[in-house]
């Protein structure tokens, strides 16, 4: 596990437990995986493992589907959010580097 990875992102939960937590069927969860809305890890034996973040995302997906939003639209929204988060993180890193540079020159 990467040192900056949160426990929320560690893939340790079985699909059966995810079903219990979310109320979604295994079939529905696998469908969302096929639609590239969630990305479980696979063990050497092919068993899917999910994170707490995946569980939260599945609940978000289920709520959006109940509102009538199509999976393609949900995926577009997630991609847009990921790009925004990456851009924001890059900007924070650059600001930090600039601050460090100018503070060491004083």
UniProtKB/TrEMBL annotation:
<dbReference type="InterPro" id="IPR047057">
    <property type="entry name" value="MerR_fam"/>
</dbReference>
<keyword id="KW-0804">Transcription</keyword>
<keyword id="KW-0678">Repressor</keyword>
<keyword id="KW-0805">Transcription regulation</keyword>
<dbReference type="InterPro" id="IPR000551">
    <property type="entry name" value="MerR-type_HTH_dom"/>
</dbReference>
<protein>
    <submittedName>
        <fullName>HTH-type transcriptional regulator TnrA</fullName>
    </submittedName>
</protein>
<dbReference type="Pfam" id="PF13411">
    <property type="entry name" value="MerR_1"/>
</dbReference>
<feature type="domain" description="HTH merR-type">
    <location>
        <begin position="12"/>
        <end position="81"/>
    </location>
</feature>
<dbReference type="GO" id="GO:0003677">
    <property type="term" value="F:DNA binding"/>
</dbReference>
<keyword id="KW-0238">DNA-binding</keyword>
<dbReference type="GO" id="GO:0003700">
    <property type="term" value="F:DNA-binding transcription factor activity"/>
</dbReference>
<dbReference type="InterPro" id="IPR009061">
    <property type="entry name" value="DNA-bd_dom_put_sf"/>
</dbReference>
